[in-house]
Amino acid sequence: MKKSIAAALCASLALAACASSPESIEATYISPATYGSLDCAQLEQELIRVGNRVNVVTGRQRSQAQNDAMVMGVGLVLFWPALFFLKGNGGATELGQLKGEYDALHANATEKRCGFEARTAS
């Protein structure tokens, strides 16, 4: 009985520490007014900068989530001490912030009818 309770406790702690997939991380709200003073050229440059950063952080978060999933599988099936090596959601806050910035920039570009196509942040 004690072993099953300990195993359940370890599993629940491990699940809480797993990194989220980048697609499941929601954008943090950033007011479009933050970028209201930028002209279209500046908005385009910021969209490129933030978009590039989103891509970098998304790749790192995806890798972290995959690694955590692998460690979770090994830990639950073969070697429970491996669960202590789960990394958690370190990049989730930054990715949510970047997605919010991208959305705010995109809203400004749309409102100002800038002539470039902005991609949606993933």
From TrEMBL:
Keywords: Signal. It comes from the Bacteria. Residues 1-19 form the signal peptide. This is Lipoprotein. It comes from Brevundimonas lenta.
